[in-house]
Amino acid sequence: TMYVDLDPPGRSLDVGCGNGAVIEQLTRYGWKAEGQEVDRAAVDAARVRGVDVLHGDLVSLSLEAHSYDAITARHVVEHVHDVRALLREMHRLIQQHGKVVLVTPNARSHLHDQFGQDWRGLEPPRHNFVFSPSALRRVVIESGFDVIRHVTLGGRAWEIAVESELVRSRRKGKLLSRKRLLAAAITAQWRERWAMRRDPLCGELQLLVCISR
């Protein structure tokens, strides 16, 4: 439920909702869930699922203030040009003490250290900002929220390592064997597990849960 397990459920907004899968899930748990998306094809796909989706930029939609009990944004903040404007709009839309949940790549991840400019999480030009945990926490607090949970998540290291190896190989003009990619995947998963024991903030993804002041 994207960590918005409030009791009883209320009204929620999934920002950058894509095909509407999160909205569908929250609806099953009793939420009055809707989404927002800028991509027309994604909006159409979500509406085929029967979910309620608003088409357009969140700030430009001018939705009613304090009208949501929870707002979720998975893999959104790294794509926008003005993160503070987005967070301020979320703050305007959320009820006081309502919950906002963000999931975004982690610039302090173990694999970013390993691959540098070839790290899959950078993904230029689609990603405008990739935050470290301290930077993400700071911009959220400056936007009027209190952080109640901030962790990093592992488990996808094998996938990110393979994709990063491919980015590096394309940059260097080299071909990689399947054996090399398999070895990279297995090694990355074990190394991430051990790295996160030493530094819990080095997982590939950040999960930040905050409430409106």
Written overview of the protein:
The protein is an alpha/beta fold and 213 residues long. 40% of the residues lie in helices and 24% in strands. It is globular. The chain starts with 10 loop residues before the first strand and ends with a strand. The mean pLDDT is 94.
Helix content: 25-40%
**Chain-averaged pLDDT:** 94
Strand order of the biggest β-sheet: 3-2-1-4-5-7-6
**Low-confidence runs (pLDDT<50, min 5 residues)?**
none
Radius of gyration: 18 Å
> Biggest sheet, open or closed, and with what strands and sense?
7 strands, mixed
Relative strand content: 15-25%
Secondary-structure-derived class? alpha/beta
Order of helices and strands: EHEHEHEHEHHEHHE
Number of strand segments:
7
Tally the helices: what do you get?
8
Distance between the termini: 23 Å
- Tertiary shape: globular
